[in-house]
Amino acid sequence: MVSETIQDALNAQINRELYSAYAYQALSAHAEEAGLKGVANWFSVQTQEELQHARKLYAFLLSRQGSVRLDTIEAPPQKFECVLEMFECALEQECALSVKIGELMTLARKEGDHATEILMQWFVTEQVEEEDTARDIVDKLKLAGARGEGLYLVDQELALRKYEAPKA
Ligand SMILES: [Fe+2]
Ligand SMILES: [Fe+2]
Question: Can you name the CATH fold of 4-158?
Fold first, then answer.
């Protein structure tokens, strides 16, 4: 059984992961509208990943006889000046999520909920990767240039990303 406190915290995290998926989908649409198919692809794959994070928490809650409560999802930002701003926004979002995962980990420890703590370890590792990947693209755009030929090359590279469904 999962405690009420942990249940609430996990439901809040499900909402944050779904918001994150929603925000990435908005970024993907924006990129596609700007003719950046590679960037759109990258954000679309990212949407899939965030949905998978939400599903992971959802399945965990149910397996521990908890209740899943799906709340309202806030509207994501719609306007971006340039592609660099889009990735800076993504990086900021991932950093904020990492803080929340850290808080969940601390809470699970405080509550003596080992199962949730172990699940959070997976998320902590995942966030390190998420931040690193987003930061890498921000750096690339700064180096190659966020317009013209540099942007074209980054867009080509981001077109190669494919979503890998988690192994059962
Ligand atoms: Fe996530
Ligand atoms: Fe993420």
Answer: Ferritin (1.20.1260)
